[in-house]
Design brief:
There is one protein chain. This protein is of the alpha+beta class. It has 2 domains: about 5-155, Fructose-1,6-Bisphosphatase, subunit A, domain 1 (Fructose-1,6-Bisphosphatase, Chain A, domain 1), CATH 3.30.540; about 180-305, D-Maltodextrin-Binding Protein, domain 2 (3-Layer(aba) Sandwich), CATH 3.40.190. It contains 7 helices and 15 strands. β1 and β2 (about 70) form a beta hairpin. α1 (about 10-20) runs antiparallel to α2 (about 30-50) and α2 (about 30-50) runs antiparallel to α3 (about 70-85).
Amino acid sequence: MSDHTRTDLVTLSRHVLAEQRAHKDATGDLTLLLVSIQLGCKFVATCVRKAGIVNLTGLAGDTNVQGEEQKKLDVLANEIFINSLRSSGKVGVMVSEEDEEIIVVGEKDRDGNAHSYAVVFDPLDGSSNIEAGVSIGTIFGIYRIQNKKGDATAADVLRPGREMFILTHNNIRIPKRGKIYSVNEGNSVYWDKACTEYFTSLKTRTKDGKPAPYSARYVGSMVADVHRTLLYGGIFAYPADSKSRKGKLRVLYECFPMAYLIENAGGRATTGSSPMLDLVPESIHARSPIFLGSEEDVKELEALYAKYPQKFD
């Protein structure tokens, strides 16, 4: 048999069960929750693969709470994850990009307490790119419910991102510095001075007297852009601007999970003026500017924001 053929496969289920066995106090609740998320991902992936031949592409005819036109797959993926998470029996409250209000699961455990976890998620990030065949994916974050004696509420998710649970792998490390930047330069006319100066500097870098600019890579799907940044280093940015003064990306189910992932891999995430994960969201669909990636790249950006505090004319 070829040495290149791996037969000892590490699946998500196997990894999660191994982690559970390694913690003697583990109850298995988080394992069941992660398995339900895995099931939802498999179901959605199947729907995405066959979307073009079963009429699942195109608009559903509605808009979500963000004012965005919903795709048919947005609606389907949202229903799949809600049902999958509810069936785990471990979720007390959910927040979805597609629903205006929090989703409270009224069921209690056998002791009459609220279930253990709160889950926030974007069921299908990058869905505007579906017809183009661009990478899309699901973003989720998991919090432990604070007060299990009462009903789960929005307070269980309106917390700093550092309190989030997320599955990480110890060996994944983002380079200290990269050579790639990822930002929608179509919005550059609306940027503040710090942002404009920073990205201009990336395009005019030199090394040994020769041009050495960073490469631009922007898919427009956060899951794809951040995944590439995690692997190769550099910086991903979605700044606030004069058109979207509070930023565009949602804190709970876009900024926090990605920032947590990057920081656990040795990178850095910021709003420009403060650490991303220290932010306390004011509402379940609150927005924020975000910059994340290699530590040295992000620190350069932060230095410019210290020099030029955010200001829009």
